[in-house]
Amino acid sequence: MAGALSLSQFPVRGSVSLPKRRIPRRSFCIRGMSEISSTFSVSTQQEEPTSNASSVTIAPPPNFKPPEPKRFAIRPDKTSEVFGALLPLLFRFATGVFVSGYSFSIVSKDEIPPDEYALELNGVTIKETAKLGPRPEKPIEIYEFETCPFCRKVREIVAILDLDVLFYPCPRNGPNFRQKVLEMGGKLQFPYMVDPNTGASMYESDDIIRYLVDKYGDGNVPLSLSLGFLTTLTAGLGMLSRISKGTTYTPAKFPPKPLKLWAYGGSPFCKLVREVLVELELPHLLVCCARGSPKRNILYQKTGTFQVFDFSNPYTGIEMFESAEIIEYLRATYALQ
């Protein structure tokens, strides 16, 4: 080992070599779920979803073919959107990009097995690790929407703690989950968290953050999330460039089960896809895989590459990478024309 360094919230910078394998891609992974159906039914057991599209057949566009994974690149027609989605990351000083206790070590390439994920920078092999707290048996459930600064704060702590979360999008005029929040908590306020592992439920982003770090972290709230009004202000300012995205409901087919995403909120590519998921009110299990997460290696072993965004649908058998194409697929498959 040539050296080691530990950081918490600041990104590693440098030019990136792009070998055939071990490429840290900037996208995310979405997958239709069957194994969390019991969790899904618990949160919606009071009544069936009110969407009038719940019985509509879900199918991809005719003759649809998933695109092949590509080396990291921004599609020319999406450049302005990506830079707009990057603004929150700059205002929030990369909060949510690194898992708690993140550290990296420079190692020999021979020390990394062929089936293990590692970062490569200019021919240097870097092994990333983190220090995680207790793991919840069941995913935390959070009701929220994309452009709420208080919701963003909670998404950031979820990434830092490397928690899997079942997100129920609550866009304005959404027919399904906003009413659930009112029934469960008595207020139409977001974010709203339910922990099925303990029975705890609560509003207020700061209370949720404190609860999660006490229960599943080391008890310490990161500095960037403990600055009160300044934290909320920077979270809000970062959203100005895309303030209308991920806010209002677009009539859509309602999926029988939540989708599944391998993602982390700090990526602008992930943000663009989440905006559409929220607008279509598609419930989704977020498998967090920020820098340092051991789940990066799980995804790498599963797919043979690391690209956070890989999409699959259990009803059609379609699996795909590339955030821009996934956005088009989601709209074509779920939005009501």
UniProtKB/TrEMBL annotation:
<feature type="domain" description="GST N-terminal">
    <location>
        <begin position="138"/>
        <end position="220"/>
    </location>
</feature>
<dbReference type="Pfam" id="PF13417">
    <property type="entry name" value="GST_N_3"/>
</dbReference>
<feature type="region of interest" description="Disordered">
    <location>
        <begin position="40"/>
        <end position="69"/>
    </location>
</feature>
<dbReference type="InterPro" id="IPR040079">
    <property type="entry name" value="Glutathione_S-Trfase"/>
</dbReference>
<protein>
    <recommendedName>
        <fullName>GST N-terminal domain-containing protein</fullName>
    </recommendedName>
</protein>
<dbReference type="InterPro" id="IPR011767">
    <property type="entry name" value="GLR_AS"/>
</dbReference>
<dbReference type="InterPro" id="IPR036249">
    <property type="entry name" value="Thioredoxin-like_sf"/>
</dbReference>
<feature type="compositionally biased region" description="Polar residues">
    <location>
        <begin position="40"/>
        <end position="57"/>
    </location>
</feature>
<dbReference type="InterPro" id="IPR004045">
    <property type="entry name" value="Glutathione_S-Trfase_N"/>
</dbReference>
